[in-house]
Amino acid sequence: MLPGEFEYHRAGSVDEAIKLIQQFGGDGKFIAGGHSLLPLMKLRLAEPAHLIDIGRLPNMAYVRRGNGTVSIGALTTHYQLEANADLAKSVQLIPEAAAHIGDVQVRNRGTVGGSVAHADPASDLPSVLVALNAEFVAKGPKGERTIKAADFFEDLMTTSLGEDELLTEIRFQAPQGKSGSAYEKLANKASHYSVVGAAAIVTLGGDGNVQDCALAFSGVSSRPVRATAVENALKGKQPTAENIASAASHAAEGIDYALSDIHASDEYRLAMTKVYAKRALTKAVERARNA
Amino acid sequence: MVLPKLVGSPIKRREDPRLVEGTSTYVDDIKLHGTLYCGIVRSVYAHARIKSIDTEAARQHPGVFAVVTGEDLKAGGIGMLPVAHRFGEGLKVPPRYPLAVGEVHFAGEAVAAVVATDRYVARDAVDLVQVEYEPLPAVVDLDAAYAGAPYVHEEFGTNIAFEWKLFNESGASIGEADVKLSQRIENQRLAPVPMETRGVVADYDKGKKSLTLWTSTQIPHLLRTFLSLLIGMPEHHVRVVAPEVGGGFGQKLNVYAEEGIASALSIQLGRPIKWIESRAESMASSIHGRGQTDYVDVGATKDGKITHLHVHILADLGAYHQLLTPVIPTLTGLMLTGPYTIPNLQCTVHGLFTNKVPTDAYRGAGRPEATYLIERVCDLVADATGVDPVEVRRRNFIGSDKFPYTTAAGLAYDSGNYPLALDKALSHIKYDEFRAEQAAARKNGKYLGIGFSTYVEVCGMGPSAAMPAGFGWESSTVRVDPTGKVTVTTGASPHGQGQETTFAQIAADELGVGVDDVIINHGDTAGSPYGVGTFGSRGTAVGGAAMMLAIQKVQEKAKRIAAHMLEASVDDITFENGKFGVKGAPDRAKSLGEIAWIAYTADTIPASIEPGLEATSFFEPPNFTYPFGTHIAFVEVDGDTGEVTLKRYVAVDDCGRVINPMIVDGQVHGGLAQGIAQALFEEVIYDDQGQLVTGSLMDYALPTARGLVSFETDHTTTPSPVNPLGVKGVGEAGTIGSTPAIVNAVVDALKPFGVTHIDMPMRGEKLWRIMNK
Amino acid sequence: MKVSMTVNGDQNSNDVEPRLLLVHYLREVLGLTGAHIGCETTQCGACTVLVNGDSVKSCTMLAVQADGADVLTIEGLQKDGKMHAIQEGFWEEHGLQCGYCTPGMIMSTLQLLQRNPHPSEAEIREGLQGNLCRCTGYHNIIKSVQHAAEHMKEGAAAD
Amino acid sequence: MHVNGSYTFKADKQAVYDLMMSKDALAHCLPGCENLEEIGEDAYRATLKIGIAGIKGTYTCTIRTTEKVPLETWTLTIEGQAKTGNVKGVGRFSLADADDSTELTYDGDADIMGPLAGIGQRMLAPASRTIIGKFFECMSGQLSGSSQ
Lengths: 291, 773, 159, 148
What we know:
By secondary structure, chain A is α+β, with helices and mostly antiparallel strands. In chain A, 34% of the residues lie in helices and 27% in strands. Chain A folds into three domains: 7-53, 2-Layer Sandwich (Uridine Diphospho-n-acetylenolpyruvylglucosamine Reductase, domain 2); 63-173, Uridine Diphospho-n-acetylenolpyruvylglucosamine Reductase, domain 3, CATH 3.30.465.10; 178-289, 2-Layer Sandwich (Enolase-like, domain 1), CATH 3.30.390. In chain A, the strands form four sheets. A five-stranded antiparallel sheet of chain A has the order 4-5-10-6-7, with helices on both faces. A four-stranded antiparallel sheet of chain A has the order 11-12-13-14, sandwiched between helices. By secondary structure, chain C is an alpha+beta fold. In chain C, β3 and β4 (54-57) form a beta hairpin. The model of chain C has no long low-confidence stretch (mean pLDDT 95). Chains in contact: A-B, A-C, A-D, B-C, B-D.
């Protein structure tokens, strides 16, 4: 398992990286931590002629918070998310989901940007960012633009990033008020990828009812899916065990295509969305109550 | 000074410093000047005719030195891979060349080899070899293979490679039994997955016309013999070295294509050739284990006494025979009755060809299948009769006063005390309390289960006459050097079992020296007498025993020299506290070192005593050994997902006399993890075209630290009478005992859903379906 | 292309192909064969080394990506010919059998104890999730890590 | 691997059938088609770059249409060879009238042989679904393009 030949270019700036990718067209690939790309190259499933190393671009690994907005630099590693004390208090599901990714070594190298740009349907962060209604900042030859999470993940390993665009930042509004969030996962025993991952955010009103909630799944379909039927069923209701279970029973609605492989059939995956919706929502509610 | 007694002590392993410091030498760490790297082109089809192989593009690639095909090797005089040759008449043996000739029979079979300057270029060149195939229908499923066409090897007109039968029945027929039950039991294919894949460095010396092969193997001596036959080089010109070996588990108890290919290429090119297996190659071309579908009929009395066991085994051999392939399922047949007095036994084994990687010995080799089957049967009988599963086992045990005991399969169990191990295991748990807790938990939708396995295994392989290819003995040379240091060579070739430590403990005690005064050498055919290898839990039981015999010879000679030195009669020489003395005059005693100096300077010893202090022995065991034990597993099944959590594991094992309890426990732990993983998730899966879909560790799950618990281990000690050490062997016990304990626990947990059997592995989805049907 | 990195305190500079994996740079160019290759798909962790203080699987990193980095391998763990407390722990508690996974396991343990000097059993099991061992069933590895944690002086882990 | 599904074209049966039999449309819409050469009646040889995102294999393919019942059904067989393994897809296609459109349904098997089968099983089904979807979308675009 050894990669094929390629030329290696180290970008010193975002602009240089974009210039390089433009220069090589479809034959170039960005590499940061390399934990999505290198395994594919070693298996010779991906054979880019040019690798553009963006791993050393300055000031792109950060978690910042201001005016309720959380900004995460694309080169932030999974470990940096996992170990971020502020996120652990304010947006628990991010460090929780990050801690579910691969293993320690993978989290030390793998970056948020690399992971979401790769858009593996079974990776954990995409559903979290979809649940958070995150925005993705992309920089290309024509300048910068932001893409909404709902539009970012298009299909299996396909995003709306242009071939010559570089993902630089991800940002979202931290849940306000009496909020809690959670990520619960049924993991593949071999690869540790998600069979089903549920990302839940719940905000409680003054009356203790669910004022707002968001739920999205990893691993179930070709791209992260939002469970709006569950959200709608729970909004305005008391977050009792019965109400959560009843809302969670709608989890599979709207999933028009479910993955099926040797580890889990589509039928099982869809059934597990209900179980993990319940678990993630229950945990998020509990955290919201203690917020 | 009274030397500490080393045998029985948990002394630290002497092999560990080099391993924890990263200075040990595995095959890929060997770097010879001028080494070229070999890459293998493998079949993408499970079954196909090779229409053509175009090697031109690969040959033209910069850095490529050679490309060879099966036809090339065959024309160059390279023969066929060896198979166990004493299986008996009627065994169908398809020809198998190191590189396929004419047809391929499994996806991953070697088709061509490239040689290049480095491993990256070799990998590039593999992709440049164009093979044109004509696909043929693949045989994947066992029942289909048994039913008839299509055939893996058309020339045989059947997929049945052999039929093997056992029949020992008298008195009432199974039809007259109080309780009759039938069950189809699958024992899925597994991949051994030693952490170090296989690898070879072949170095041909043109001047000496001799070949040295470093290879990650469990059997350097046997490999040397078979390799010499394979490549047509006289055996005495071949040296095989097993350097540090990163796990074997039976996968490296074999002779493989690449060992022949690299050797042939080194001879052809006059350069050292290195081939290191990738994990994907390992999964797709090195032997797998298990792979049986068993049809079982059982007769029992109302009170749970098993009277009849009829078993039809469909054994998945894969596409070819490797060294011992057909033998493995017959071991299942021989061990079917377990530790029980089952009077009537019938077994038919049909060894079936399929278009898959050949199966062979994987940790336990045929016995885990037998133990799984009979321990499942015990629980099925418990279900059918209402007798508690523990009681069923107790009622069927061979009494501790019945040894040696000849089973219905004709094996003579050496020694045992099965109720003792069961009682000891039960003393670790509160069985009644658990049953109450289980009942209460069920009311809350929580599914707890307990599973028992009271196993016996056949180990210490074994008497040559009872072995499929002979070679049941082991050898050792014990040399006391002039300065009194002790150099032991053993024909056994350990690969993680710690015999550099355990053998030194024995030798030090027996020769009256410190453990650091002994070195254990192994794994080099140039440096030891011909030996057999480490497998079948035989290292200490046979290899250690051989060393013990050599030590006894050294002791005898030392006594004769001491008698001369002390001017006493040999009969009056004593050996106490590490010194050779004369009865009643302890102050005149001589140390081994003093004696050795005299033995080698040799100017003062009489002509009747040969110089030197060294002896070689070969030990032929009179029988196998039969370790046993009781394992108890506690699990919880998640009612929503079907996911199984292992809560607790108790293992009481009896491996006879214990040389080093720390090492024995370590062997048990590792075995448990492998057996538990078979029960819960490990599984080699082929699709219906014969493509391996669990081709990497992304899809073939190995146990990780997170999914296991700390094990509770304990022992009983019932020495074996068949070797001078009283040891039985422990390398496979954990694997053999644990699989049924886990499955029995899961089935127990799901009793409320009316199940009595679930085929492995206990995947969440499978259990979820049972709970939601 | 040219890469320079500090490995176990020694400065190295070599010309390498861009596709050369870090593990092959360490093993073949520098001759440090303690890091092993066991799976190639980033599961087994036998190739684990520390790069700038972070444990990484050196088979999933290009040597050129480590240009300028400070790398610590198993060979650099001993000080003055004395085993590191983690190496001692694995030896004391029989945390290895065939030894192939051991260097990676030890480097992961180092990372674990640097971040969490007194881990619980569950935290150890989690911290070693990226390292596969086929011999020990992890039982004695857990004990080895506990032994190391007890014997590592405060601050020593950061060495 | 079983694959099936359907696609609705805003055109009548004749147009859809002609489209599906059109060498030019195939050359344009077969994934990553670099050349399509006729080697016999309803038989082509082509080089296809098939894959998702950066994971692409270059397959040397033969494509055959057989068992044609004009305007109703046909069978399409694609056999390809690449470094990562061989593929064989056999699909049975049929057309049915729907209100002012035509529904094409397909049902078949796609078999992947070689390394890709062993290391990529998790992705094969969703990837083939995506690739087939893109193919029909492209064909549909051809239709609207030709009507302009």
